[in-house]
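Marked as duplicate of an earlier ticket. Keeping the data here for the record.
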Amino acid sequence: MKLNFLGACREVGRSAIFAETSDTGIMLDCGINLGGEEKEERYPYIPDEVMEKLDTVVISHAHLDHSGYLPHLYARGWRGNVYTTKPTRDLMQLLLADYLNIARENDRAEFTMQDLNNLMRDIEYIEYGEKIQLPNSNHTKITLHKAGHILGAALTRIEDEKEEKSLLYTGDFSYRPTNILEPSQTDIEPFDALITESTYGGKKDNLPGLKKKSQQLAKEVKKTVQKGGKVIIPSFGVGRAQELMITLDNYMQSGFIPNTQAYIDGMIKKANSIHRQNVIHMKEEIPKRILMAQENPFDPEYFNPPKTKDRSDVTDNNEPGIILTTSGMLTGGPVIQYLKKLGHDPNNKIILVGYQVEGTPGRALQEGANTIELPKRNGEKEEIEINAKVKTLHFSAHSDREEILEYISNLPRPEKVYLVHGEEKKTKNMSKELEKRNYETYVPKQKQEHQF
């Protein structure tokens, strides 16, 4: 089996790996880099000669750094087979439509709504554990397995029966349970090579467990609202927002967080609806909670959307409040408006809860910047001053260093391990640790090919 690494090499974002079996070509993910300014930084490298060999795309999950370039392929004229899980398909439709709207506002749209509609029409979804033979192929089969991370996320196992070679690609995964999902599966058929993410693969990447990080979040929010301030929590609209919303709603119901106004904004409400429609893919307790207790965790008691289009009902009052909004890296969405109106006030607090890609405003803020550049609708940027307190809490949907190592050790042992989707220093450090444990590891560079 031949691998061509087209993105997410020694970086986080634009995941795209081309795998050639004896009789077909498969793209594992097809994402963009949310922090990239130029096309060379933003998009994966997919030349025409790869497009000609490409028969199938498999999407691990809906986040744009794994799915965002797929409509661009359609704009370039590609047509083929696209596979994923049903929840991922539903969430992709939401995220890609939002991506297109933002691109249009900034005069950067490179695909059309028709391209997106054609893509969504062509997507076929398969169930976890269902092994299917790919069309136009006599020897290649794929199977998806639960990956944790977010709703619908999947590991992909490729099997070439003619070459007697197999591959497991994790995409993003989480080896810890969350409020709504079980951890990533390990009971998988053996495979020869593993391609895994290493987002938190650095020496110091030890993330708190669910209970501890939930307590940390609740304490930070309580501290600010008791002093009359507003808390802005930028978040991915899919996955992390639902975990945060459920956590905060529980603390407000218990009385630990004082009764205060709480808002959800951006695509979170629509994503909540998709979660409610796909509860069968969650922990068993979630559908039981809905059916038996008639309690819908995706329609929280305390969180509501803003009442006005300009969000003045949220920003122009002197009351404390909680604002859970997109986007998580401050690259667009309603959070821009909230930061412009509320970011100057030292009584307010910004809580960064997820990974901040290099080059994003969120990363600059995390590293201590007092001013950040935020996008305007015309594609230009505006510099604003931030006096609000900034706090980072790792409410991540990824595995940390020890969990990655534990997860790999609990999988069937592969002959080779390829490390992607991590900053170069972290990825190389993870590689050294795995080599100590007698794994043969590779940290591929962009456009690098490898045969196994």
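See parent ticket for discussion. The chain has a mean pLDDT of 95.
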